[in-house]
Amino acid sequence: MAFLPGSDSALITEKAGKLKFWTPGQASQDVAGVPTVAYGDQGGFGDVVPAPDYAASKMVYLSWVTAGPNDKHGAVIGRAKLEFTPGGPALQGLTIIWNQAPRVTGQGHFSHRIAFSPDGQYLFVSSGERQKFTPAQDLTNNLGKVLRLMPDGSPAPDNPFAGKAGQSPEIWSYGHRNALGLKFDAQGQLWDLEHGPAGGDELNLVRPGVNYGWPLVSNGDHYDGKAIPRHATRPDLAAPAISWNPVIAPGDFIFYTGQLFSGWAGQAIIAGLGTEGLVRVAIDGEKAREVERIALGKRIREVKQGADGALWILEDGERGRLRKLTPAGGIGG
């Protein structure tokens, strides 16, 4: 979900392939011109983010999964102009600007989250390791990485591995698993929120050129019970600011900047799938600590902040709802 700048309207992706235009108090509309997505397991429509110059360009960025030969899949990012035609909202001139590579079998761990740098100059993308483990440590590909691109999808020219033979010039950081959150804080620092295996969900402060350890280390273990060395065993690899075991199974997250929820400014508000609510986390320099869990009784996929400081959340699942949260139990349908 993304609010459109200068508006209380929002765009909402639905995993199976619909893009909704929503305005409070009105029925949502299907946006025309959306791509065909490869829907299944964790694959489908992903993120939606307005361009930094949306007020002038009306451009929006979207991520989705596409299928290729031999049952291989990969995420892509495209951009298009959002037009309001007599027939309703529509994407025009949709163009793919980035491809997850290589395409591999399976339909898990795409990540495909999008974040623009605060100055609007760079496009950051989380690219999952596609449940294949070792690509996250392989600098020749863009799987299991956080990438820094130009707004047209090309690699940023001064990335850590630019100009190094056999290494992807897109890479900003590596050793990531499945990052479903990618956000800048008020100080301009980039953070990612990752699903761990059986334990070990992580919130990381993302630094250029740094290795975050997956699958060499984790604060969780493999699903079959096989142990993974802990972060503490490898001080040469970046440890998370906070990790969870048992997992919270996070969705997206925000850094709260409003005043409506007193004392929350600067904190990370995490959508919890496994916890069926929100997880509030305070940032202490390069570390973090959990402050509160807010039970909502549903798997929460997305959280966004409205202009008035209220929180908007998207439930996960076929009967998922968009809900508005305000203090003192003010939960809207």
Care to give the gist of this entry?
This protein folds into 2 domains: 2-247, TolB, C-terminal domain (Neuraminidase, 6 Propeller); 248-333, no CATH class. Helices cover 1% and strands 43% of the residues. It contains 1 helix and 25 strands.
Provide the number of structural domains. Answer: 2
Question: Which architecture of the largest domain would the CATH scheme give at its second level?
Answer: 6 Propeller
CATH superfamily of the largest domain: TolB, C-terminal domain
Overall pLDDT: 97
Tell me what portion of residues adopts beta-strand conformation. 35-45%
Summary keywords:
333 residues; mainly beta; Neuraminidase; 2 domains; 5-stranded antiparallel sheet; 4-stranded antiparallel sheet; 25 strands
Write the layout of secondary structure elements.
Layout: E1 2-3, E2 10-14, E3 18-22, E4 29-30, E5 45-50, H1 54-57, E6 59-67, E7 72-85, E8 88-99, E9 104-105, E10 111-116, E11 123-127, E12 145-149, E13 171-174, E14 178-184, E15 190-195, E16 201-205, E17 242-244, E18 250-255, E19 268-272, E20 277-284, E21 287-295, E22 300-305, E23 311-315, E24 322-326, E25 330-331
Antiparallel strand pairs: 1-2, 2-3, 3-4, 5-6, 6-7, 7-8, 7-9, 10-11, 11-12, 12-13, 14-15, 15-16, 16-17, 18-19, 19-20, 20-21, 22-23, 23-24, 24-25
